[in-house]
Write a structure and sequence with these properties.
41% helix; five-stranded mixed sheet; Nonspecific Lipid-transfer Protein, Chain A; alpha+beta
Length: 191
């Protein structure tokens, strides 16, 4: 009988604690739930961070890595071991260009660098400079049209070995698609 009385007393204490705000106190004392990890900010389109991701996307594209070796495109590197492509958004005139370097490695055209410009002097007999308005890069990245139409209608400006580029329109089209594959913030210009 004594144990029943003790049990009744304990139950009474629990209910009175709950009624007096014990649940609120218990909730306040409990650790706050761990917030969900914040989504990483998207890189600004054609920023150095974007170029590094574009370089990775290049290396996952078999048309770029295989066909540019087969055509001899990678061999035109002035014996320096890489070709340079500098690209930028025409409507972001004060933004820096970005650079991608491609080398022939193990029989593949591998992007070995994507980031801020490091090659001060380009040779347009082997290197490329390409620029277009952000809207046009987006259209090309979505596959709305390819490099031939883009250049013919002046939507993509190009300096570099024209005949070499003309002989590599298939891979060049895949390069333009990278602009749509790499998720990015297009609402601001790179800094």
């Amino acid at each position: 009988m004594n144990s029943n009385k003790t049990m009744t007393t304990l139950i009474g204490l629990v209910f009175s604690t709950l009624a007096a705000g014990g649940v609120q106190a218990a909730e306040e004392a409990a650790p706050a739930p761990t917030p969900a990890p914040a989504e990483a900010a998207k890189p600004v389109f054609m920023s150095a961070e974007w170029a590094a991701l574009a370089c990775d996307a290049w290396n996952r594209d078999p048309v770029l890595t295989d066909k540019l070796v087969e055509s001899g495109w990678t061999d035109n590197d002035g014996k320096r071991g890489f070709k340079v492509m500098q690209i930028y958004r025409t409507d972001c005139p004060t933004s820096p260009r970005v650079e991608m370097r491609v080398s022939k490695k193990d029989g593949k055209a591998i992007c070995t660098y994507g980031g801020k410009v490091e090659t001060a002097k380009l040779d347009t007999g082997m290197d490329y400079i390409m620029h277009a308005e952000s809207k046009r890069w987006q259209e090309m990245g979505a596959g709305e049209y390819g490099p031939m139409r883009a250049m013919m209608f002046g939507r993509l400006k190009f300096d570099g070995p024209m005949m070499e580029a003309m002989g590599n329109m298939g891979p060049f089209a895949n390069f333009l698609l990278i602009g749509g594959k790499v998720d990015s913030d297009r609402s601001t210009c790179p800094k």
